[in-house]
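Q: What residues go here?
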């Protein structure tokens, strides 16, 4: 669990840095799958710093996925939003309310319950069909991005965020399935991760970060957790299943409550409030 929480810490800070870098880059075409936008974001030092933390976090995630059930690792990654909220409050000068600090406490409490209840990694190795299925799912992430890029405003950000979460979820499952360099699961891991970064960068560069973050949390936690339990024999300690379910639910619920602070959401909220205040002054309200 220590490795999973370390990964969450890295991903949480990286999200804020990447949001700053993506928004500093020249706007892209508006497509959900925009490689040029990613290339321009890579020219920003803050984005590069975020990628460096992502690399460290991914290494820790690999360690965690080789010793813990996917549902525990997934909840830890969702809990990275708690780290993002704290980082945003410091780096973006965004004050957290009591409700938001309560949400941070909820995430931490959920993770504590999961840590107590989780068993070891499941003994299932997955079927060939599941390996090819992960590759198909990785390809579908690109289709979600292409479709999501055509949507307006908040719907666009939500769909792109969900697609990015699905891509990261494919990575979580594929790590458990890789059995050689020719494995379709390895191709799924690489394609899913690359597609997720494309969609996430596009979602962060414009639109509602709130919606994008919430979609990402859902995409990278619920599906992989179900695959782990159903197909890879992930289990809890004997008699602790209700505690694990409660911990997972608390961690995800707390993360969703913090969604508006995820990946720079606080900064976006401040930007959105400014025009509204100006409009109110102009109209005499």
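A:
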């Amino acid at each position: 669990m220590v490795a999973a929480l370390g990964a969450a810490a890295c991903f949480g800070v990286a999200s804020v840095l990447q949001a700053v870098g993506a928004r500093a880059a020249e706007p892209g075409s508006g497509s959900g799958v925009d490689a040029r936008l990613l290339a321009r974001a890579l020219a920003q030092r803050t984005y590069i710093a975020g990628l460096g933390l992502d690399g460290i976090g991914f290494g820790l995630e690999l360690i965690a996925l080789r010793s813990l059930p996917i549902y525990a690792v997934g909840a830890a990654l969702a809990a990275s939003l708690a780290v993002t909220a704290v980082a945003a409050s410091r780096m973006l000068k965004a004050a957290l309310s009591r409700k938001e600090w309560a949400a941070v406490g909820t995430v931490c409490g959920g993770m504590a319950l999961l840590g107590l209840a989780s068993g070891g990694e499941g003994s299932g190795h997955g079927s060939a069909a599941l390996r090819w299925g992960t590759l198909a799912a990785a390809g579908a992430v690109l289709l979600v991005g292409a479709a999501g890029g055509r949507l307006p405003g908040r719907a666009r950000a939500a769909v792109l965020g969900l697609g990015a979460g699905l891509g990261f979820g494919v990575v979580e499952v594929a790590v458990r399935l890789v059995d050689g360099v020719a494995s379709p699961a390895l191709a799924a891991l690489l394609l899913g991760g690359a597609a997720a970064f494309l969609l996430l960068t596009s979602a962060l560069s414009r639109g509602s970060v709130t919606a994008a973050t919430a979609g990402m949390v859902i995409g990278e936690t619920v599906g992989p957790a179900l695959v782990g339990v159903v197909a890879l024999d992930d289990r809890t300690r004997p008699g602790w299943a209700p505690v694990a379910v409660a911990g997972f639910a608390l961690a995800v619920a707390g993360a969703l409550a913090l969604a508006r602070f995820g990946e720079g959401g606080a900064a976006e909220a401040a930007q959105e409030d400014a025009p509204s205040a100006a409009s109110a002054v102009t109209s005499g309200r």
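A: Context that may help when evaluating the design: The longest helix spans residues 153-177. Confidence is low (pLDDT under 50) at residues 262-285.
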